[in-house]
Amino acid sequence: MSRNLSVNLAVPARNPATGVGLTGIGKRPVDHLVTVRAPGPMTTGLHSGLVGDQIFDIEHHGGDDRAVYAYAREDYDRLALRHPR
């Protein structure tokens, strides 16, 4: 049986690496319930499947096919070994 440990929403930050200007890749856990919804079409819809999350690069992110990502704790542990930050 699995359980959700946290829901994390974007913390907007400047992104000098792209022409987008802002990025929402930095996520932080929230301490309240978050509504999950179908965000609609990628470039014209609500963008994120989580109410309160922000997506700034709508050309490459968001939409119904990328509504919510869920990772297992083991995935984070494995990534932390490869990318320790």
TrEMBL record:
GO terms for molecular function: catalytic activity; molybdenum ion binding; pyridoxal phosphate binding. It comes from the Bacteria. Gene3D superfamilies: PK beta-barrel domain-like. Residues 36-85 form the MOSC domain. InterPro entries: MoCF_Sase_C (IPR005302), Pyrv_Knase-like_insert_dom_sf (IPR011037). This is MOSC domain-containing protein. It comes from Catellatospora coxensis.
